[in-house]
Amino acid sequence: MRDAAKHRTHVTIRVSPEQRAQLERLAAGMPLGPFMLWRSLDPDSPPPRSRDKFPVKDHIAISQVLARLGDSRIANNINQLTRLAHTGSLPVSPETEDALRLVCRYLVEMRRLLLRALGLSDVPP
After folding, report:
1. Cα–Cα distances in Å, from 34 out to 1, 11, 50, 104, 119?
2. pTM for this model (two decimals)
3. CA-to-CA distance for 62 and 120, rounded, in angstroms?
4. Distances, alpha carbon 12 to alpha carbons 5, 15, 113, in Å
5. Cβ–Cβ contacts within 10 Å for residue 27, how many?
6. CA–CA gap between residue 10 and residue 115 (Å, rounded)
7. Overall average pLDDT of the 87-109 stretch
8. Cα(40)–Cα(26) distance, rounded to whole angstroms?
9. pLDDT band at residue 15 using 50, 70 and 90 as cut-offs
10. Taking the domains of the chain in order of start, what are their residue ranges?
11. Angle of CA points 91, 96, 102, to nearest 5°
């Protein structure tokens, strides 16, 4: 056990659910303990680096999945199907149209989740 960990003590405070929600919003994913220490004892310094609540186990694998999603011809294929459907060359039932819309939503959501897992959620689509 580290020396610093041997000498730590607990501090407990009671907050309302609304106050906890406000603290969590202010912490923006940072664990509440380190966030509250930083804000109360050293607010002028940069926030401490700490692990996210949902740490990524393998950044390389997630990056590769995101790259393959970008390199795939999925978007182009969907665009071609849409063009064929609009010109009448591809008859599309309402069920097929709903399925294609669902696939598009899934792809957008997969990309968003992968970017968030990599800490790149501010990257434009």
Report:
1. 19, 12, 8, 39, 19
2. 0.43
3. 12
4. 17, 10, 34
5. 19
6. 36
7. 85
8. 13
9. very high
10. 3-41, 59-117
11. 140
